[in-house]
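Annotated sample (chain length 642).
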Amino acid sequence: MKSQIIEQLGQTGMLLPSLVAEGLGANDRIKVRMSALQGAAQHARQPDQAVSDLQAECRAASIPPAAIATLIGGAHMAADGRIAAPNLAKLLKDIADDIAAMIRAVRAGAPQEGEAFDARLAAMLAAGVLDAATEIEVVRIARLTGMAENGADSLHRLVMDLHKALNRLAARCAEEIVDGAHVFGLQPEDHAPVQSFMRGLGETKMLKFDHPGLDTMATRSGGRLLIQNDIGTTDAHVVVIAVKANTVTVTYTDVHRARARFFVAQFEKFPAAWSGLDRHAASGLGDDGTFYLVTGDYQADSADERDAFLAAIGAALVFLIDWNKARKLLRSWVAKGDAANLLGWAARHRIGHRAFLELGGDELIGAAVRNAAPTRIGFGERLDQALGRDAAVEFLKTAMRVSTEALREGRSVRLVRDQIEAELVRHLERVDSTLLAIILRQAGLANDIAAGLAYHIAALQAGRSSDGKALAARASRIEQKADRIAIEARKEVTRLNARPVIEQMMDRVEQAIDELEQAAFIASLLPEAVAPALLEALAGLCGSSVSALQATASGVAAAAEVPDGQRVDSEDALACVLRLIDAEHSADLREREITAQVLTGGFDVATSLAVLELARAIERATDRLAGFGHLLRRYIISDLLA
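Output written by the structure step:
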């Protein structure tokens, strides 16, 4: 199929060495078949004599010996001096096919000479020399296998002349190895571009690992250097590069349109002019017999620029092997566009995807999910849904990089699996960090209300005016905003299947915000003249709530860093929990102090109720924060134990 594609591209010069070899093989087969005809004629005329044994000749020419032995041994005389033999019609057809193969090779290397041979064969076929039949005249066998009298043309002479022509072409196709490329008939100036292409190929070839492919041929045809690489084993996956002076023309064919676009994208830094992707048909190719063709022309200003482009082409080819297979695999874990971008990243960073596939690919990721996150990522769930898009892409990059490094360095597959599982755990912990960031935002909103309360009480202490209604209105807006954040946060907790303790911490902070919003409402209703002792006690209680919230925020921020293995962050987070509990104890004492003052101070009913309700609301907020502190401690300890 690759030969058919190259012929369709009009680059038959690339095929000349293999065509010549095929033609010389056909010549060997013709000789055996001619000898078989002569042996059949001899056995038919003299059946009592020993049968010709051509087994060695058959094996040397890659012809099944049994068929030839059957033909000779079964030959017998028929009516009118004719000879009948098994498989005779097939043998005559095979001779015609072999002559056609010889002519095809000559036509590829010497078109005019090939046309002359075509005409000679056509004349013989018209005369019925090789007409397939179950019987053949003895005279025709003599004409087929011998030289004609008076120098007339004959099949035997045609075969001899073709053999001479093929030998001349074979001399032109003398093979040489240039940096791993099989080259034929190169000019001295052709070696540098071939070496440049092979240099680029050599830089990345190891990334195919055990996959076959990337064999390179080069020859001179039509005044140009032609370089051809078979890439992999896929039908119609061929690249042919023509070099003339400093001009490089790339012809690339592929059954996958997306991979052809990927190929072109590898050379963005070179100002080559690329054609569109034309669709072509070839019989026997794939499901619908179609492939895509793209050509690129690069006019280099110097030989160095030309050679750099050739090296880039060579280096890019390994990333085309199994590209579509890798893309399909990645699309089961991330979006279609991200899958293609991952392969582009792997190519740019000389990582590739072959090692990832060779170590299991889909099973490699599936095992990591089953072992590291059986309850966090559901069956059939994409990684970008579980981790988020950016985290999923980064995780797959790491999986591809680790796979390549492992195969290149001979590491065990078990170690690779462990590394990938650890990376998945790390990204899942980053998911927790994302949710902790939401809690930190909630704590910040709570602190805004607490700080507003503290400012309002401080203003009343100093005899300054303070707009209580504005305080209550702002606290209400903050509480509504916090509710919206909490609703979205719970959706994220459900989607990411986060640990229950995270949602419980969110609930505690949300409850604290509700209590503080209630406290702001009550503070807006305080009478104008509140006893200084009560205001002083309320100011102290507000300070305790602010301290509790500051400890809450610091603890959450430190906890978000704990999964990275930083012992100091775990210690900081636990220290914040202790500060938070101390602040809650302080708030309890201050609330009791206020209660005692109200019940023993003889204040009016409005003042007493307002101050008591305000103190209790603030104290309840610190209680909720204390509950949050205990949950945070449990979260941190579970991470440290893990």
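Annotation: The chain has 23 helices and twelve strands.
Annotation: Residues 175-321 form one domain.
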